Amino acid sequence: MPGFLPLQRKTEIMTPKSQKHTLVLGASLNPSRFSNICIHELVDNDFPVTAVGLREGEVAGVQILKGMPQIEGIHTVTLYLGPQNQPQFYEYILSLKPVRLIFNPGTGNDELASLAEKQGIKVENKCTLLMISGGYF
Question: What pTM does this model have?
């Protein structure tokens, strides 16, 4: 009919959630680890997720990748690596050009935070799980 636009398929519609492609860095296959729980919560809340960890596997339908794979369109990197394990990932994290970097409890790192802020990346010292459940992720 004139004046009406055809409906778009769901996969073509960009929502605020679908624009927040999140990298879980330090992903674990262990269901009791917070990174594992985070992947489940992100998937359950319709956020696109990529996971990188020490071991390959699958969590909530998301493949855990090893190494430092180049990934396009990352909005948020959420860290589940202690500060002592982060230096080897500095360049990798910055190369992804995320909009936001979340330091979950126990992952705070002033050096990485400073490097990220100098690149214009928003730094947050918060719990990703609380952000999702609180509706302000």
Answer: 0.87
- What is the spatial distance between Cα 130 and Cα 102, in angstroms, rounded to a whole number? 12
Average pLDDT over residues 130-137: 94
Measured between alpha carbons, how far is residue 91 from residues 18, 23, 96, 112 in Å?
Answer: 26, 15, 9, 10
Distance CA 81, CA 93 (A): 12
Q: Which of 12-16, 22-26, 124-128 has the lowest mean pLDDT?
A: 12-16
Go through the domains of the chain in sequence order and give each one's CATH number.
15-134 (3.40.50.720)
- SS3 of residue 19 by DSSP: coil
> How many CB atoms within 10 Å of residue 25?
25
Give the length of the chain. Answer: 137
Q: Are 25 and 93 in contact (CB under 8 A)?
A: yes
